[in-house]
Amino acid sequence: MPNVALYNIEGTPVGEIYLDDGVFGAEINEAAIYQVVKMQLANKRQGTQSALTRGEVRGGGRKPWRQKGTGRARHGSIRSPLWVKGGVVFAPKPRDYSYTVPKKIRRLAMKSALSSKVANDEIIVLDSLKLPQPKTKEMARVLKNLKVTRKALVVLPEKDEVVQRAIRNIPGVKLAYINTLNVLDILNYDMFIATQDAVRRIEEVYA
């Protein structure tokens, strides 16, 4: 069972917290992570790209010149893909790129992502995260106390308006809740910062 240091918002160690082996100490499955990240990126695509085929471009109804005798290559329309301002071959059209992978693979990917943070010593667990005021400088002070200088994902068990307002203007730092936590965010941010209540909730959900 992996255990990590427990800190307060002053950056002082106040003990240790034991993490569930099945969630934070699982074998890292890169194939599952790849599948889920690929799915998330596909689901984020708007799919609104569109171009005109030769049948949709305006003009080109008349043959530009006769078939033979001009010495030039034969053409039937000035809106052929070979021409400037012509149609696009296999033009992209609006479509839905979203798809899903099995729930077991999604859970395996989440466990693998969380376990990778523990294995790489990129996790910080706080006893609690209560700020006196919803000000950016308050959250910046907490990050400075924890010696966090890289991109960080802060995870809370439930919505906290004070922390949300304090964190939203800090570049490279994102706030997530248990119900919005995802594999892509965990991997995109260098440090994973969570309260001990959030850790226990994660263990309940993914155990």
From TrEMBL:
GO BP term, example: translation
Location of region: Disordered: 50-76
Residue ranges, compositional bias (Basic residues): 60-76
Keyword RNA-binding carried by entry: yes
Record keywords, A-Z: Ribonucleoprotein, Ribosomal protein, RNA-binding, rRNA-binding
One function term, GO molecular function aspect: rRNA binding
One GO cellular component term: ribonucleoprotein complex
Pfam families, per the entry: Ribosomal_L4 (PF00573)
Family membership: Belongs to the universal ribosomal protein uL4 family.
Role played: Forms part of the polypeptide exit tunnel. One of the primary rRNA binding proteins, this protein initially binds near the 5'-end of the 23S rRNA. It is important during the early stages of 50S assembly. It makes multiple contacts with different domains of the 23S rRNA in the assembled 50S subunit and ribosome.
Assembly description: Part of the 50S ribosomal subunit.
Name of the protein in question: Large ribosomal subunit protein uL4
Biological source species: Caldicoprobacter faecalis
Gene responsible for this protein: rplD
